[in-house]
Design brief:
The complex is a heterodimer of chains A (about 170) and B (about 190). By secondary structure, chain A is an all-alpha fold. Chain A has 7 helices and no strands. Chain A is globular and about 50 Å long. In chain B, about 65% of the residues lie in helices and about 0% in strands. In chain B, α3 packs across α4 (about 65-85) and α7 (about 150-160) packs antiparallel against α8. Chain B is globular. Classes of the chains: A mainly alpha (about 170), B mainly alpha (about 190).
Chain lengths: ~170, ~190
Amino acid sequence: MQNEFPKAPSAEALADLQTREQDAICVNESTLNHPWWYNFKYAAWGILFGIVFVKAEIVSWFRIQEMFRFESFHYVWRIGTAVMVGLISVLIIRRTKARTIYGEEIHIPAKTFNKGQIYGALIFGLGWAITGACPGPLFAQIGAGYSVIIVTFISAVAGTWVYGYFREKLPH
Amino acid sequence: MTMIETLKQPWSWYIAGALIGLTVPYLLLVGNKTFGISSSLRHLCAACMPANVNFFKYDWKKEAWNLFFVGGIAAGAFIAANFMSNPEPVVLADSTAAYLAEKGITDTSSLQPSEIFSWGNLFTLRGLIFFVIGGFMVGFGTRWAGGCTSGHAIMGLSSLQWPSLVATMMFMIGGIAMTWLILPYLLTL
């Protein structure tokens, strides 16, 4: 087995990372180049995630209505629990300097503030209450058989594209 | 109650919350990935229609893991909906049910109200608002914000990033404003 460490990323790879990092919180921080089928690890967790989305009714438009009308707080507690579990996990990972299963150092990029987190987030919030879905549940609703959500999904991809097109003209 | 019957019931918020939270360490430990879903929409743009826009000119294959993850979400939802589904109607808070009934939305037999989310509504004003405009705002807004509920509210807050707290608060403000001020009108269209 070849040892892939340590290897400094090339200037080209760094420039590419900079573009990928724009307006993104989830960036592939790994410098390893694995065959494509290594990605099934993420598909496997996605499957579990999709099951949870449907079984906990997170994908339901009704549940989003309940939350925003302050008539049921399950959704808020659920996000709260998720954040608590995530927070403790990140704390443990940072304290123990845990490495990935491939031995890489774990790196969580710091977010910098920009105005998009106000304007963009507000637009998303408005849209969220209409569609009853954030991006994750869109995939789950389609998988669960609500085929008309394909239209919502295509529209969301179009929204992302239009943002990319006008990005330099928008306040950040 | 057998195991299967238990699984078919709606899952409680703490089990769902814990499993969602565990996504954060899972992704970090298996591959140094930070959790987020809305970026998948951007990778699809980069893969299918980069159109020489700088924002889409990057090696999207490096982020293909994200597309596998969302593909898994759709597959998991398919499994849950077809093999683990709960035949009972959605149990709503009484006040929500009463309010929606007043607006003509009474079909709680499935997770989505058929009065809104059906193909028959596609070429109506309702379809334009709920599918096309709503979807556009989700895609445009999340990208401008730099993340959605998963990236900002879960990953961002888990790693104590204050810009994510700002974004999460704005998500909620937007959602509450739409629900109380605009949606009551939109539902009558």
